Amino acid sequence: MKKKILGLSFLTILCLNFSVSVLAEENKIESSTQATETVPVVDSSSENTQERDSASTDSTESSLEQDEATEQTEEETAAPERQIDTPEGTMNLPTGRSDLYPSIQLFASLPSVSATNTNTPSKSFVDISSHNGNISVANFQKMMSYGVTGVVVKLTEATSYTNPNAQSQINNAMAAGMKVSAYHYSWFTSDAQAVAEANYFAAAAKRFGLSGGTVMVNDIEEPKILGKGNHTNNSRAFENRLKSLGYGNVRHYVGLNWLNTGKINAGVIGNKNIWVAAYPYNLSTTNFYTQYGAWQWSSQLSFPGVNGNFDINADYTSTFSNPTPKPPANSIQMYRVYNPNSGEHFYTQNVAEKNNLVSKGWRYEGIGWNGPTSGNPVYRLYNPNAGDHHYTLHAYEKDNLIKKGWRYEGISWYSGGSNALHRLYNPNAKAGSHHYTLNTNEKNNLVKHGWRYEGLAWYAK
Asked: Following DSSP, what letter does each residue of 329-379 receive, concatenated?
């Protein structure tokens, strides 16, 4: 889970090879800047607290920190990122990413990962907060072009903070076709506090228009509450309260260290109800922690053309993401992309070609159809003057276009099956003059807008 970047915190010696003297000096700094232990629960009837002036906030927090610095334990002054060795390898464990008491999250030991990198675990969904700012529909569509089909949006924290960007993030993700879930950053250390925070979370979800079927997440990671309550029972109280308020699909985001030290009992919560966080040093295509419902494996994923880095997760139960539909037997998926500058729709079975176009600004529009792996060939041609592609089942049409200067680019796919694709022509377009679709409603809508229906293009499964 992300946070706003404010304040200072020291790095653990496991992440950087500092000398003893430097660590001692940073411990002095830490003791004067560490956030207060007090659980930040305030009057939930006033959400103006979330937008308070940053200068006054810093001043207030500074005085609280100085008063309570002497009471902090080693657990509370721990760095925001920890490293452990597991049977799966060395893992980093994110902790303490509050928006109310933020600290710098330094991931010096984590590699930056591009969405174009295929040597990674599954890229199923991202989670975002106000730290990520406003994300456009086009940017969410860019994420989807790399297989990311879900987003978990931070709504609330304690009973005093609401993400000011949540509504636009939710709306734009939904408009892009993503599955939207929500999370709450928890501070509760008792059942009563858990109920109060669940009330606050559910109220925000309703304001933002999230239905009762939305996946609602208890993000329990704050180090200042570690060991100060029965975290398993408190989390169950939070879950049960959400269910009583009409939100029955509840999950729990937990750092691996909370599970390994028994702070959260996976057997009671349910393994598949847990979304575990642990960051690998050496990337590979291996998906770890498959006994749980989901795994957050990095906070440093970047998408070409999209600002910032994102938390990225593998989804093992299709809880947080839209499952990729499997094509019928003996068929292959055909990708559909759109050029907003020229108006051309392009179709290809080559995922590398699709991804390359998306990286250059084309919009991925999903699977156009499923084509057979054999049958009658469909030819692909290119007009170098108009920058337009054309596809045809007819050899004589192909030959005629070649005579007029079109370039033949080979067989694109095959025709076969019982589903007919419609072919339409736009007499006013210079590029993208032909369009092909399985969707009869789309075909009829284009005809209403002046496109000419030219009959069946070919068949698909």
From this structure: TTEEEEEEEE-TTT--EEEES-HHHHHHHHHTTPEEEEEEEEEESSSEEEE
The confidence score (pLDDT) of residue 109 equals 53
Enumerate the CATH 3.20.20.80 domain ranges in the chain, comma separated: 20-315
User: pLDDT of 32-54, one tens digit each?
Assistant: 333 334 445 433 333 333 333 33
Which pLDDT score is estimated for 145?
A: 85
Of the candidates 444, 447, 432, 439, which has an alpha carbon nearest to the alpha carbon of residue 362? Answer: 432
Task: State the Rg of the chain over Cα.
Answer: 26
| Predicted confidence (pLDDT) at residue 154 exceeds the cutoff of 90 | yes
Joined tokens for residue 367: 């699977």
The burial class, CB within 10 Å (0-12 / 13-18 / 19+), for 287 is: middle
- Number of alpha helices (DSSP H) and beta strands (DSSP E) in the chain: 11, 22
Place of tokens 């369009």: 435
Decide if pLDDT at 103 tops 80: no
For residues 407 and 384, the answer to whether their CB atoms sit within 8 Å is yes
What DSSP assignment string belongs to 200-241? HHHHHHHHTT--TTS-EEEEE--GGGTTSS-HHHHHHHHHHH
Please give the Cα distance from 445 to 458 (Å, whole number). Answer: 20
Residue 267 exposed, middle or buried by CB count within 10 Å (0-12, 13-18, 19+) = exposed
* CATH number attached to the domain at 20-315: 3.20.20.80
Would you say how long the chain is, in residues?
Answer: 461
**CA proximity to 110, closest of 140, 150, 70, 83:** 83
Query: For the chain, what percent of residues have pLDDT higher than 70?
Result: 76
Contact call for residues 335 and 352 (beta carbons, < 8 A) = no
All residues at 6 or more sequence positions from 144 whose CB lies less than 8 Å from its CB, including other chains: 176, 177, 178, 364
| Beta pairing partners, 277 | 255, 296
How far apart, in whole angstroms, are the C-alpha atoms of residue 104 and residue 253?
A: 21
Cα distances (angstroms) measured from residue 231 to each of 88, 225, 269: 26, 9, 10
CA angle 123, 255, 29 (to 5 degrees): 115
User: Rounded to whole angstroms, what are the CA distances from 421 to 131, 238, 451?
Assistant: 44, 50, 15
What does the block give as tokens for 345? 């729709």
What is the token pair recorded at 304?
Answer: 């070409």
Query: Using one digit for the tens of pLDDT, what is the confidence trace for 367-403?
Result: 899 999 999 999 999 999 988 999 999 999 999 999 9
* 107-131 per-residue burial string, b: 16 or more CB within 10 A, e: under 16: bebbeebebeeeebbbbbbbbbbbb
